[in-house]
Write a structure and sequence with these properties.
Layout lengths: L3 E5 L4 E5 L3 E8 L3 E9 L50 E5 L9 E9 L18 E10 L4 E10 L4 E10 L5 E14 L4 E8 L2 E9 L3 E7 L11 E5 L9 E6 L5 E7 L4 E8 L6 E3 L4 E3 L3 E6 L2 H16 L13 E3 L1 H4 L5 H14 L3 E4 L29 H9 L3 E6 L3 E2 L4 H5 L19 E2 L5 H18 L3 E4 L21 H19 L4 E4 L9 H4 L4 E3 L8 H9 L8 E6 L12 H8 L3 E5 L7 H23 L1 E6 L6 E7 L5 E8 L10 E2 L9 E4 L4 E4 H7 L1 E2 L8 E9 L1
Parallel strand pairs: 21-22, 21-30, 22-23, 23-26, 26-27, 27-28, 28-29, 29-30
Antiparallel strand pairs: 1-2, 2-3, 3-4, 5-10, 6-7, 7-8, 8-9, 9-19, 9-20, 10-17, 10-18, 11-12, 11-14, 13-16, 14-15, 15-20, 16-17, 24-25, 31-32, 32-33, 33-38, 34-37, 35-36, 35-38
Helix pairs in contact: 6-7
Length: 729
């Protein structure tokens, strides 16, 4: 592919391309940045897609000698207020006199090899397998004394544009940033849809598509976490197809408050924006200081939503996931939680370790309940000391036993939280996140540590480091089970009150960056009651995320399907849990729960100590099968075939990178007496090839699988599933 960023003095056009996509910006009147194109690669661009400017009543004209030119009709790259463009600005800055009028003008540009790094924030990593080039366009307001640098990076092998912005105070007094988008662009409305995700705890990643209507459509969060109510994702698409049509999608490398906006004006121009949520963001910028927005990822697909997901998966694998975990096969674990809940002890863990080794597990995880006084959810968070009443010999014997049997040992933490009933709060009440005037609200019987404080950050780094070094654990499950309600610090700060949520997030990033850098071989799993903070910012430090607390055999289909829009299945963890399900009380077959978990980074979370011999055999066989499959799953191309949101059948496909080996997973939910056939077509194969289906010892041509399909034979039961493994001959 041809990776190139060019600027033509003659046409005043910036053209970013990798041979597959093009992104084009024009400098207009040597002042304004216009968005001209983003899509399939162009050989040349002659500005023929531009709408003609014409004089309109009530329009404002920057140059009275050109009455047809108004910013109201110019598709902008980084708009700001009071320029005759009445749509939502990308930047709003207030000086010390309360003036928020700025007039940025194009100043200069710089092109360099590689990717930029953003201080104190996760960002796209360099990759030797996917080179990059970066364009910085600088804009200056000499009256307001500000400089804005717009970053655009393009990758050689991935159809993504990485955008961010940086503002620098060049004046002698402070400025207040009240709004700053990571990415903003305008385009012409052509009957596109907008797709977003919403959800709740135990019902994450729910897809929603609607027409782009006149006015503003905005989603986001002010909870101090990226989800699950609204995921940092927004896509504009042609026909809502998984396989065909253009999709332009935005996401964010950030884990805190965010917002996404679509605005269609009276002239059918559309503005798309993503970035920090201005409802709970302001930042005081002192002289000579700079502020960086989080990076936004812009994905273009010509092959529908499956094509979009392929690009997101490729991008996160090569540029987000910690390098040491890119090709890492995570251990198959058994987690103690749904077996014991808080009633965990040395005896039960010894039994669990023995049984785990017998069945072929590779890791044992001690979940909540192991630390002093932790017998319920109301106590002890922050007191990370082993409860000797439960573990009279400390944890060393069970960890040594685990390692002696060839298993990894993991443990649960909720580091950001503190219990009202804890030694830590008695010692440091000033560490609690709260206002100086009111008592804080409880959520899940707990409060939140103020991670904007350096002393709190240092405490967490020291206490977890000490634990890792003392006990030689291999895995840490990092949980976070409540969101921010009162974003305030008890400690005086020079920052604006609305800066707190971002300060908290930067404090969190500092803590986990230091820990993961210090202990690169420890596997950290991101967990926030499931999908509460499942985003690219956390994926930068933690290679896998607990997708949802809901492990139900029905609900999980929607959750995993929606999450796969952004995340490769191996980046999410899924467990085989008990039935009736502890969240929904629904009864589903063990095989279906196993097959769902096997479509992720798989583990178990149920009471294996009470298994009979038949159960033991089924689990042992399942673990052996997954061990044989997981390298393919880890490195696979992943395709969604049928959607649980509009079908009684959910199906998806794992394809090896060589396009030779496949795993097909199918779930039929409700048995209907009138249904006699379920035909599934697989469009991603080679019609000229033949494919051998293992298990049923059958050869089927690619053309038949793609165009005629196969009839699925289910038993007359609810919640059945099928797994097919096949290879190209």
């Amino acid at each position: 592919m041809t990776l190139s960023i060019s600027f033509s003095e003659n046409t005043q056009l910036f053209h970013l391309t990798n041979g597959n996509i093009s992104y084009i910006i024009e400098v207009v009147h040597n002042t304004y940045l216009a968005h001209r194109y983003w899509g399939k690669a162009l050989k040349t661009y002659g500005k023929h897609n531009q709408a003609s400017m014409c004089k309109k009543t009530f329009a404002a004209f920057p140059d009275p000698n050109i009455p047809e030119f108004s910013l109201e009709f110019l598709p902008m790259e980084f708009p700001h207020s009071y320029q005759g463009d009445y749509k939502n600005p990308a930047l709003r800055v207030i000086d010390d006199a309360g003036n928020d009028l700025i007039r940025l003008k194009y100043h200069s540009y710089n092109i360099f090899e590689g990717l930029p790094s953003i201080p104190d924030l996760p960002h796209a990593r360099e990759s030797k397998d996917d080179k990059a080039k970066t364009l910085i366009i600088s804009m200056v307001d000499e009256i307001a004394n500000i400089r804005v640098d717009l970053y655009y990076s393009i990758l050689e092998n991935t159809n993504a544009i990485i955008r961010s912005s940086k503002i620098t105070n060049l004046g002698s007094t402070s400025l207040l940033i009240e709004q700053m988008a990571s990415a903003s662009l305008d385009f012409y409305y052509q009957n596109q849809n907008v797709t977003t995700m919403h959800g709740s705890h135990q019902k994450e990643f729910q897809l929603e598509t609607q027409k782009i209507k006149h006015g503003q459509f905005k989603i986001g969060t002010t909870r101090g976490a990226s989800g699950p109510q609204y995921v940092p994702f927004i896509a504009v698409n042609e026909n809502n197809s998984e396989t065909t049509g253009e999709v332009r999608a935005f996401s964010l490398i950030y884990s805190g408050n965010h917002s996404e906006l679509v605005e269609r004006d009276q002239y059918d121009q559309v503005r798309l924006q993503i970035g920090l949520n201005s409802d709970q963001f302001s930042w005081i910028l002192e002289r000579n200081q700079s502020f960086y927005s989080p990076q936004a990822i812009l994905i273009y697909s010509i092959n529908g939503f499956n094509g979009m997901s392929q690009i997101f998966h490729e991008f996160t694998t090569n540029h987000i996931v910690p390098p040491q975990f890119r090709n890492f096969t995570a251990p198959i674990l058994i987690n103690s939680w749904e077996m014991t809940y808080f009633d965990v002890n040395e005896q039960k863990m010894n039994l669990l370790i023995d049984k785990a080794s017998e069945l072929g597990f590779e890791a044992v995880v001690l979940d909540d309940g192991w630390f002093i006084g932790r017998n319920n959810s109301r106590t002890s968070l922050g007191d990370w000391v082993v409860d000797m009443n439960k573990f009279p010999n400390d944890l060393h014997p069970i960890i040594s036993k685990t390692h002696a049997l060839g298993l990894k040992f993991g443990i649960w933490f909720e580091p950001e939280m503190i219990s009202p009933d804890s030694q830590l709060i008695d010692d440091h009440p000033e560490w609690v996140m709260k206002s100086k005037s009111y008592e804080p609200l409880l959520g899940r019987n707990q409060l939140i540590l103020d991670l904007s404080q350096t002393t709190v950050q240092d405490f967490l780094i020291a206490s977890i480091s000490n634990f890792i070094e003392t006990y030689k654990v291999d895995y840490i499950k990092w949980d976070m089970n409540r969101h921010i309600t009162e974003p305030f610090s008890q400690i005086s700060t020079n920052q604006h009150p609305k800066a707190y949520s971002h300060q908290y997030m930067m404090g969190l990033y500092k803590v986990i960056n230091q820990l993961t850098t210090k202990y690169p071989d420890v596997l950290f799993e991101n967990c926030s009651s499931g999908g509460g903070r499942f985003d690219f910012g956390m994926l930068y430090y933690f290679p896998q995320t607990w997708a949802s607390d809901n492990t139900d055999g029905l609900d999980r289909q929607e959750i995993q399907y929606g999450a796969s829009y952004l995340f490769h299945p191996y980046q999410m963890t899924g467990h085989v849990s008990a039935t009736p399900n502890h969240q929904t009380q629904r009864v589903t077959p063990l095989s279906t729960r196993q097959n769902l978990a096997s479509s992720t980074n798989m583990g178990y979370e149920l009471d294996i100590l009470n298994f009979n011999e038949s159960d033991n055999l089924l689990v042992k066989e399942h673990i052996e099968d997954y061990k044989a499959d997981r390298k393919l799953i880890l490195s696979s191309n992943f395709y969604r075939l049928t959607s649980p949101f509009n079908s009684n059948i959910t199906a998806w496909l794992f394809e090896s990178k060589e396009k030779t080996d496949y795993i097909l997973s199918i779930f039929r939910n409700r048995f209907q007496v009138y249904e006699h056939h379920h035909i599934l077509k697989i469009p991603y194969l080679n019609p000229e090839s033949d494919y051998y289906f293992k298990g049923i010892d059958t050869v089927i041509s690619g053309s038949e699988l793609m165009y005629s399909g196969i009839n699925l034979q289910f038993e007359k039961k609810d919640f059945e599933s099928l797994i097919f493994r096949f290879s190209k001959i």
